[in-house]
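agent> fetching stored inputs for the protoporphyrin IX containing FE docking request
agent> found them:
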Amino acid sequence: MSSANSVTGSIARAIDPMLQSASAPEQAVPDFPMMPLGQATDMGHAPDGTPLLDPRIFNTMEFMRNPYPYYKIMRDHYPVFHDKLHNCYYVTRYADITDCYFDDEGFNTIPKGSSSGVLGNTQLELSGIEHRRRRNLYGQHLVGQSLNHRVPAIEKLAEQMISNWDNLTPEQGVEDKGGVRSIQLGKVFANEFPIRVVCQVLGFPEESQEDFYYWYNSMMSGLGGSDTQKQGLEARQHLEDYLEEIVEARRKQPTYLYDNDGKELGKDVISKLCESKIDGDYLSTEEITSNIALVVGGGGETTRGAILNMWYLLLQHPDQFAEVVADEDKWNLAFHETLRHSTPIGGQPRHNTFDLDMHGVKVPAGSLVNMVDFSANHDDRIFKDPETFNIFRDDLYSGKLLRSGFAKEGKSSHMAFGVGPHLCPGAWISHQEAVVGSKILIKHMKNPRIRVDKMPKDIDGESLAPIGLISVRELWIDYDLE
Ligand code: HEM
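agent> prediction call returned; pasting tokens
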């Protein structure tokens, strides 16, 4: 199994209380057996035949690795499930979740949980006008032309990282033997690549990248709980101290991004933030730090998970992988289907402002209501045969992301980036990172295949472990050097 204690776990726990409960295997209730994938353990039936759902299942490894049959029970029988054990509600159908995400007044995002201590007060936790004002501060720099011009720089970064593989040792994730190279894709590429890209776009000096990666990792593990929070807070303080000088300098003299030919592309995000005002006041250094912490925190683990999940799934479907290799435009399809099938972010908490009656369930104002994006992405009212990974499915929208969720032509977008006012502003940049990075990777890897002996296995001891609720942490790939 992918480790529940991974950094992925930490960020997921910070923004997804459902995982918080699921990530405590020591509290696991032994009565629930591990089931073949796709089958739920029998928890009894009501007199009318409705399957019962015991919320203690959420604390088990079984649920971590095989959540989808349980989500199906919820969607079909308890579309708003009142979990009296964890004192919250789960909304599991695609259409209901979309409605709730759009209802910015009825469902607010405050409080987000433990993330605010480390990240600071960010837009993630705001609703309404306050949210809109902050969201507009830098969102435009992560999309559109300004980002498209950065593609050559993203490619260059990927090339640099890959060319360094020749210098790495087995401990660092590269092992050569008999004309075959084994790499741990997370260690040698996916863990750092998204952070480095974002670091560039924000406008951090290249020499700060290593410090930045360290602060990032510490802040992320600081989201994991009280034991690591101190480390996270310290890292945030270091980042803030470091930024103070940069901000002071850039308030006087903004710095710019350039393309590979040296053509100026506009101010970097830090310089932009330095000149931004809210209600007539410039943003303080602390506010700028919080924005930066959120952009990096929101974009690192998620994109890492997307890249590793995509390669893990594609390499387990060689026919689909061959199509992607033959036509690199298909990486786009693979990216979106990966985010539908196995999104790195499983859901978002909201609090309802008013008393509600949803599907006959009374939800008092102020309740914790979890929107389960994992379940929306596997809702068979929207996606046929949802458990199957198929980059050619005809019901998934894979064009430009729409805040409206539902798209034209009878296709629907996946829910991995959310919808509505909080729709992920980093969706396009993460797409570019995953797709552009993969196109470069594949040029350097001949006949790539999963190194099965190094990978975690499922309960039969032979099959590769499913992704379940926690993204792939380590992915070992063999490829031919000649
Ligand atoms: C595959 C990669 C990613 C996934 C799955 C993802 C997922 C999400 C989701 C589901 C939300 C909505 C939160 C909510 O509704 O409360 C969100 C918000 C956010 N994401 Fe991402 N994200 C990804 C990559 C990125 C990247 C690369 C960045 C930055 C460069 C980023 C920055 C943000 C920010 C700043 C927000 C807060 C938006 C707001 O509250 O208005 N994300 N992300």
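agent> quick read of the result: Residues 109, 123-124, 135, 142, 198, 294-295, 298-299, 302-303, 306, 343-345, 348, 416-418, 422, 424-426, 429-430 surround protoporphyrin IX containing FE (CB under 6 Å).
agent> awaiting further instructions
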